[in-house]
Design goal:
By secondary structure, the chain is mostly beta strands. About 5% of the residues lie in helices and about 30% in strands. The chain folds into two domains: about 280 residues, no CATH class; about 80 residues, Immunoglobulin-like (Sandwich). The protein has three helices and 28 strands.
Length: about 400
């Protein structure tokens, strides 16, 4: 019944563009105001899509970025990234040695765990950025490379909350097209059992000496090098790629998904976003110094947030719902007081908030996971109403 209800909402609320419900298209932090930092457009500038791929145009500079918070400053990447809409598990999983391994929803890139340096520059005992460069990170845990690429090696604190009672939002996408979530997910892969912190299956070795490496001591504790970690199947919730196949709010039929890993104290823990190898296949278009140079086909469609009712819009005479996208508080404005029922639904068709109103009111959205919701406003006197699609950032 819930799935039928949600399907009806999709038809009534966005019937003209009902096909555009793919969070890979709609779930980005769009720059709809022309906001700039030092003359650089922030967040995601534009998204294009066709049947095969999504193309994301971004400067790589999010709106919260500030110069001077790390040794190097970020610069305009003028990048176009490409993500496959149909994901394919890899029969022979591969990874990359360094650099960007995914795209955050704010338009910046995620990086592999290492800092591109090793002990004595020997190519073994590769250093983890979390241990060796943490003091160079800004308040979001981001910093920039010497060639000015702003990025995150681990948990981007701007993209989710620490609410352990709700499923974490999508914080980005891996180059293989699978979503990357924050640290909290459903206990069971079928979407039941409540919410839990997703635990890594990578464990620290317990050795006291390293072969051809530095002594284990306060300067070089176990866990500060990539080689200090090894995968132990079944020791956590996630596989060797740092993900699992499961139901999520955005993918009620299930998807493979990576998760941001943190420990019990909510500190980042290896492998942070994506494991040493990708679960799916990927192209090299996004990889390395030349990454982000994808060409948008002339036949691709540009997604326009304002066209899809994701800005302030009057839906029916006398009632307005805004702002969309929403961050903290969603206003239901009534110019004609009456008796209304307001229901807020998630993508599974579940009512997560409900109330009766007779004048302008607000819904608290602060603690909800980032993603897509639907609000129903129903006139109890006439039994008529409407449904609007809401994007929570």
């Amino acid at each position: 019944m819930k799935k039928m209800l949600l399907a009806a909402f999709l038809v009534s609320a966005i019937s003209v563009h009902a096909q555009v419900t793919d969070p890979m298209i709609t779930g980005w932090w769009f720059n709809t105001t022309g906001n700039m930092y030092n003359g650089i457009l922030t967040d995601v500038e534009a998204v294009f899509y066709d049947a095969s791929n999504v193309y994301v145009k971004t400067s790589g500079i999010p709106h919260y970025y500030q110069d001077g918070q790390s040794v190097n400053n970020g610069s305009d990447l003028n990048a176009t990234w490409v993500l496959p809409r149909t994901q394919t598990p890899s029969g022979s999983p591969t990874g990359i040695q360094g650099g960007q391994n995914g795209l955050m929803i704010d338009g910046s890139v995620s990086f592999t765990p290492g800092d591109a340096q090793s002990y004595n520059n020997a190519g073994v005992w590769n250093r983890l950025a979390y241990y060796f460069e943490y003091n160079d990170m800004d308040p979001s845990n981001g910093h920039s490379t010497p060639n000015n690429v702003y990025h995150h090696h681990f948990d981007n604190l701007m993209l989710h909350t620490w609410d352990s009672t709700v499923h974490s939002p999508i914080v980005g996408y891996s180059w293989d097209g699978y979503p990357v979530y924050g640290p909290f997910g459903y206990v069971n892969t079928n979407g039941t059992g409540g919410i839990t912190r997703m635990k890594t299956s990578y464990q620290k070795y317990t050795y006291t000496t390293r072969t051809n490496g530095p002594n284990v001591n306060a300067q070089y504790p176990i866990g500060c090098f990539i080689e200090d970690w090894h995968y132990v199947a079944g020791s956590g919730d996630l596989d060797e790629h740092n993900g699992r196949f499961c139901i999520t709010p955005e993918y009620p039929s299930g998807t493979y998904a990576y998760f941001t890993t943190v420990d019990t104290a909510l500190n980042p823990v290896y492998p942070y976003f994506i494991g040493p190898t990708f679960y799916g296949t990927y192209t090299n278009t996004n990889i390395g110094p030349s990454g982000g140079s994808a060409t948008v086909p002339g036949t691709a469609t540009q997604y326009n947030p304002s066209t899809y009712a994701e800005q302030i819009a009057k839906i029916t005479e006398g009632i307005s719902v805004y702002p969309v996208p929403v961050v903290n508080s969603l206003t239901i404005e009534l110019t004609k007081p009456d008796n209304y029922l307001v229901n807020l639904y998630n993508l599974k068709g579940e009512i997560i908030q409900t109330r009766n109103i007779s004048a302008t009111d607000k819904l608290n959205m602060r603690n909800l996971a980032h993603g897509i919701y639907f609000i129903e406003v129903k006139d109890l006197n006439t039994n008529s109403g409407f449904v609007q699609r809401i994007v929570k950032q």
